[in-house]
């Protein structure tokens, strides 16, 4: 009798769980439905900073965030070209997302508590770890930021860097003069022209700005870091399925690197791997795609389009590129970094 009661209870629990899971997958996703009906993913990106998003000599957008957009389009459509890039300034990016002008924001955007709780938006999985820094002329004789008393500092409107800079100089009781711009290229031009003594923003973006300057060797990025700047995609609140798609797509790109799945070997690994995790990731078994209303090959298609996280990083800002930014905290956790894919099972 006891065994029968336990069996009945277990069967009831499983049925309830299956029913709840089925109900979850049947919840409408207004964003996914709109993207599919339109046939294009509208993706918000930077107005222009090397490494993350900038047009090449042919006018084709290139960069880390650009590839994240392309990979997401491939996960949805099996076509990385089905994406429309919408360049946005720091001060307009969140408004554009909230109004529906874009479906997702992949734009060097830091997760903060107030952004996550007051804008009607949600920060998704962190995909890049950075920190606020300062760039000065190499011959300026500046070794540390505390030495820049009275300096004019270029800053970008609508960024966390405005507050970080003000907080630091106030904490050490050192005066400075902010010069605020709408776009990164405007601040970089002012720096080169001598309107500012320094440019304060996230170190990765400083590396991108320096790479785009006429004489990069004339500029140095000071070694101090003054904040934590975890970047992640942003989506609108209230569409849980779309949040899940962006979250687990980002995770899949990281998971692919952890498992050694690349653009070149994804097809072979899908055909021959006996690793259950790899088989799930690459859609040999369909449950991951089904859980987020995508094709079973969603992650496989994304990896085939843009590669795993390491491939995207090295192609867009790695040490063999003009940006030449060591991975540092953006290494996998197994290599001493902070990247850690949540279990995909």
UniProtKB/TrEMBL annotation:
<dbReference type="GO" id="GO:0006865">
    <property type="term" value="P:amino acid transport"/>
</dbReference>
<protein>
    <submittedName>
        <fullName>Amino acid-binding periplasmic protein</fullName>
    </submittedName>
</protein>
<dbReference type="InterPro" id="IPR018313">
    <property type="entry name" value="SBP_3_CS"/>
</dbReference>
<dbReference type="InterPro" id="IPR051455">
    <property type="entry name" value="Bact_solute-bind_prot3"/>
</dbReference>
<comment type="similarity">
    <text>Belongs to the bacterial solute-binding protein 3 family.</text>
</comment>
<feature type="domain" description="Solute-binding protein family 3/N-terminal">
    <location>
        <begin position="40"/>
        <end position="269"/>
    </location>
</feature>
<feature type="signal peptide">
    <location>
        <begin position="1"/>
        <end position="23"/>
    </location>
</feature>
<keyword id="KW-0732">Signal</keyword>
<keyword id="KW-0813">Transport</keyword>
<dbReference type="Pfam" id="PF00497">
    <property type="entry name" value="SBP_bac_3"/>
</dbReference>
<dbReference type="InterPro" id="IPR001638">
    <property type="entry name" value="Solute-binding_3/MltF_N"/>
</dbReference>
């Amino acid at each position: 009798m006891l065994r029968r009661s336990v069996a009945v209870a277990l069967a009831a629990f499983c049925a309830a769980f299956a029913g709840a899971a089925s109900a979850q997958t049947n919840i409408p996703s207004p964003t996914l439905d709109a993207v599919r009906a339109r046939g294009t993913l509208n993706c918000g990106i930077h107005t222009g900073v090397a490494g993350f998003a900038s047009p090449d000599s042919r006018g084709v957008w290139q960069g880390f965030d650009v590839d994240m957009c392309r990979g997401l389009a491939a996960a949805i459509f099996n076509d990385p070209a089905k994406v429309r890039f919408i360049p946005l300034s720091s001060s307009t990016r969140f408004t554009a997302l909230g109004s529906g002008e874009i479906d997702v924001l992949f734009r060097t955007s830091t997760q903060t508590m107030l952004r996550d709780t007051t804008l009607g938006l949600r920060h998704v999985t962190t995909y890049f770890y950075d920190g606020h820094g300062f760039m000065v002329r190499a011959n300026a004789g500046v070794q540390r930021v505390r030495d820049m008393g009275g300096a004019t500092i270029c800053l970008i409107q609508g960024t966390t860097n405005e507050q970080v800079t003000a907080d630091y100089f106030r904490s050490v009781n050192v005066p400075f003069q902010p010069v605020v711009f709408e776009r990164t290229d405007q601040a970089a031009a002012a720096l080169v022209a001598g309107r500012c003594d320094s440019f304060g923003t996230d170190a990765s973006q400083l590396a991108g700005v320096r790479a785009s300057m006429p004489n990069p060797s004339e500029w140095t990025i000071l070694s101090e870091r003054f904040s934590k700047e975890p970047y992640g995609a942003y989506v609108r609140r209230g569409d849980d399925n779309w949040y899940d798609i962006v979250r687990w797509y980002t995770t899949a790109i990281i998971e692919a690197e952890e498992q050694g799945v690349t653009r070149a070997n994804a097809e072979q690994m899908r055909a021959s791997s006996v690793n259950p995790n790899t088989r799930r990731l690459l859609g040999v078994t369909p449950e991951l795609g089904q859980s987020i209303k995508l094709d079973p090959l969603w992650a496989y298609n994304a990896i085939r389009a843009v590669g795993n996280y390491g491939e995207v990083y090295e192609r867009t800002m790695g040490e063999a590129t003009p940006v030449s930014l060591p991975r540092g905290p953006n290494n996998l956790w197994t290599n001493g970094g902070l990247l850690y894919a949540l279990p995909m099972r």
